[in-house]
Amino acid sequence: MYRFLRIIVLLALVGGLGFWLLTRPTTEPESNLAGLEGDAARGEVIFYAGGCASCHAREGASGEEKLVLAGGMGFPSAFGTFYAPNISSDPEAGIGTWSALDLVNAMKHGTSPEGQHYYPAFPYTSYARADLQDIVDLHAFLQTLPADATPSKPHDVGFPFNIRRSLGGWKLLFLKDGWVIEDVEGPQLERGRYLVEALGHCGECHTPRNALGGLKTGEWLAGAVNPDGKGRTPGITPATLDWSAGDVAEYLSSGFTPDFDSVGGHMAAVVENTAQLSQEDRDAIAAYVKAVPEVAKE
């Protein structure tokens, strides 16, 4: 019996060590950023392409107030309610002391400067595909924005989802940096894929999720139940969206549909961002959306 107990204890220790190693937060080697200098002007484009203000500005903010990234917006889900943190340039409440490497680790690996896992309510599963130079440029732009001392609101997440270490296992399953649509032809579709799959993180809302919260990439952009369980985000594959590429690009610029309706809900904030992009980028997004596989989701 004593020998049996020793074996059980040994197996438990080995299993615990294996879990600890497999679920440890990942970081980017600092050497990968060697020679990269931040360009705030380019970073502004990344800021709008990534929709940063849509989540991190105060609810109800408008105009220049949307550049005050004090956080606080809540995102209800089946796992609890997550709150966007302060990412202003404030050195205490915000990310004013973050290096470009800190931002890279957050966006590409979901890892905080303290070495903790971030919850995937922060769409690092999409940002993982972002170019390092773009993140470095975004960091330079964020440092030019106003500081705000509002403390970040803690997430309202209960057991067992409040065990951050377990997110390491979730990342093993769902944090990938490969493209969802691997084969695209030409620079325009490549740019559109980058804007949709990486910076714009469109799939985070328009793609259904499984029971663990991972994206069902086999139903890419086919529409999904909203995370709070109320209503749906529509599908935007050619199976359900019969707009032309020109219609899509116009919608991303003006917010008007081909039927002369206007954008509403959360998509209004998205259009505020895409309207700041170049016409070439909006055309690239439209071309990509029209080129993805036709998937209809009831």
Description:
This protein is mainly alpha-helical and 298 residues long. The chain has two domains: 32-178; 181-298, Cytochrome Bc1 Complex, Chain D, domain 2, CATH 1.10.760. It is 40% helix and 4% strand. The protein contains twelve helices and four strands, in the order αααββααααααββααα. It has helices at 2-22, 40-49, 52-56, 100-109, 124-127, 132-142, 167-174, 187-199, 203-206, 245-254, 266-274, 279-291, and strands at 74-77, 80-83, 224-225, 232-233. The strands form two sheets. A two-stranded antiparallel ribbon has the order 1-2. Strands 3-4 form a two-stranded antiparallel sheet. A hairpin with a 6-residue loop joins strand 3 (224-225) and strand 4 (232-233). Helix 2 (40-49) packs across helix 6 (132-142), helix 4 (100-109) crosses helix 6 and helix 10 (245-254) crosses helix 11 (266-274). The longest helix has 21 residues, at 2-22. The radius of gyration is 20 Å and the shape is globular. The N and C termini lie far apart (57 Å). The mean pLDDT is 90. InterPro entries: Cyt_c-like_dom, Cyt_c-like_dom_sf, Cytochrome_c-type_DH. Keywords: Heme, Iron, Metal-binding, Oxidoreductase. Residues 38-146, 187-293 form the Cytochrome c domain. Its EC number is 1.17.2.1. It comes from Pseudoruegeria aquimaris.
